[in-house]
């Protein structure tokens, strides 16, 4: 079965800035998908019935392959849906190695990693932003950050106010960098000087779209007068993404049970890979294909560990087979920002 015949199901909630990255990508590339809407805080039984412990949003299922982390999701969509007349390219051309390096990890790390743009943006959430003072939300996010649910929240209204000056400095520095480099030059609409947005734009713009939507930036020092190119770029991207969404139409929305039925009733999107025996982590941990392993993110949500059978591992990706309520799925996690450990007392069984 061709990949294009498999269901694509995006598990997300509407206001997730990370999920927007994937929604933009799918719409700009005209890749149809189905959505399974989730609550912004745990529990998420729709995800659990897939056999997935991952607590962050979004995650994407293509057939019976489930992909974690937006960086890996974008890489997989690039690989599984190559540019065509039906699905226009968003990647930098092969003739632009600098652009490919930017969307291959440099900008992604800058915006996503702990201490990066997104995490500074968290401390700029306005004091009156709906829901952010809800004790359930604060407890949920404390747990995601590895703290006891009853610990003082690191993102409470008071904590955000204390961190705001430093966060403003970090965001302002990033705005200046983009304003004076990738957005500089007459008629440069997109970061790589292309005719339409690329993955580089998606990687860099999502934090600024999120901040603009919350009206989180002081207009006198960080508004359009101070950074005209950057704000024009953000507005241009939003218009382009909105037009693509309107053209493609609203995705079908399914319940968790309906989504699970689609996943478990489908084929796998990818061939089963191998474990790279020369990989330093494979060597250090003594890993073999078929070992029972646990995989988890190292920055946030680390208390939620995937458990399953190791299927493949490379420098870029870990794949394990997990048991869901309706059958087996393959869970894919990136190597960057994730850790893998053999379960004690287990050995190869494939």
UniProtKB/TrEMBL annotation:
SUPFAM superfamilies (alphabetical): GST C-terminal domain-like, Thioredoxin-like
Ranges for domain DUF7962: 123-245
Positions of the GST N-terminal domain: 10-83
Entries under Pfam families matching the protein: DUF7962, GST_N_3
Name listed for the protein in its UniProt record: GST N-terminal domain-containing protein
Organism of this sequence: Apiospora marii
